[in-house]
Design a protein that fits this description.
It contains 8 helices and 10 strands. The chain has helices at residues 44-52, 95-105, 112-121, 137-149, 167-182, 194-200, 218-226, 229-235, and strands spanning 6-15, 18-28, 33-37, 59-64, 67-68, 80-83, 155-159, 186-191, 203-208, 211-217. The strands form 2 sheets. Strands 6-7-8-3-9-10 form a 6-stranded mixed β-sheet, with helices on both faces. Strands 2-1-4-5 form a 4-stranded antiparallel β-sheet, covered by helices on one side. The radius of gyration is 18 Å and the shape is globular. The structure holds adenosine-5'-triphosphate (ATP). Residues 15, 18, 20, 38, 40-46 line the site of adenosine-5'-triphosphate (ATP).
Length: 236
């Protein structure tokens, strides 16, 4: 059996007196869509940040594609894409140029065909030459998603990708995530929305106060939410 795409062993992150992640153990298989569900401040962004190199873990091990990030912090991360919560890009580059620059960050050459493919997939064709600062909020989010995916990452993190987006973008994004997973891309998304986890995920993890409370297949988690047992867990 192939090794997991991602494995967390005892991942812990502390900020002074606050423990944002506490001894998290998790294994993600190739091609699955995994939803990490939890309330504000649960530790979802910290978990993603630790894996992507944006947050320095306090202890524990992170294995990406079977490689320990303590031994090789850079190589495996070239195969990862991140759609962050906050919109961050250079406002003065055009949409197409932003994607070419992103390819450059990942050591890939300019690739007009790939950029056009991403513009079509995210419905940004008409904005190809528009500077990013002139885009609407929804279009900016589409660009952020295109940027995260343009280098064909094998593992994609989406940090609350549909928070505050309109119905059309939510539907487009869900369809695109399903397509990526069917092609073998592994997806980890964080969300506050039970509905989103139910729509997309193969497995769901529930996190609160830095502790991963459970990891189950979607049907089991939905049944438990139906019984309100998880609400009780959050309130403990
Ligand atoms: P949200 O859904 O609101 O984005 P989250 O589940 O992503 O929440 P995190 O952003 O990972 O939660 O935060 C986890 C905890 O760590 C919170 O209590 C947060 O205040 C704290 N935290 C995050 N970053 C820092 C930091 N740089 N310094 C101190 N505390 C931090």
């Amino acid at each position: 059996m192939s090794s997991p795409v991602l494995e967390l062993q005892g991942l812990t992150k502390s900020y002074a007196k606050l423990t944002a992640l506490s001894n998290v153990n998790l294994s993600i298989r190739q091609g699955e869509i995994f939803a990490l569900l939890g309330p504000n401040g649960a530790g979802k962004t910290t978990l993603i940040g630790s894996i992507c190199g944006l947050v320095k873990k306090t202890s524990g091990r992170i294995l990406l594609f079977g490689k320990d990030l303590d031994q090789d912090p850079v190589g495996p991360r070239y195969e990862v894409g991140l759609v962050p919560q906050e919109i961050n890009f250079d406002p003065f580059f055009s949409v197409a140029e932003s994607l070419h620059i992103q390819l450059g960050f990942y050591g890939r050459p300019r690739d007009e065909a790939r950029v056009d493919e991403m513009l079509t997939a995210l419905n940004l064709q008409n904005k190809k030459d528009t500077v990013a600062r002139a885009l609407s909020g929804g279009m900016r989010r589409r660009l952020l998603i295109a940027k995260a995916l343009v280098h064909r990452p094998k593992l994609v993190f989406l940090d609350e990708p549909t928070a505050g987006v309109d119905v059309e973008l939510r539907r487009d994004l869900w369809n695109y995530v399903r397509k990526l997973a069917s092609e073998g891309t592994t997806i980890v998304l964080t969300t506050h929305y039970l509905e989103e986890a139910e729509e997309l995920a193969d497995r769901v993890g529930v996190i609160n106060e830095g502790r991963l409370l459970l990891v189950e297949d979607k049907a089991t988690v939905m049944r438990r939410f139906g019984e309100k047992r998880l609400v009780v867990t959050f309130e403990q």
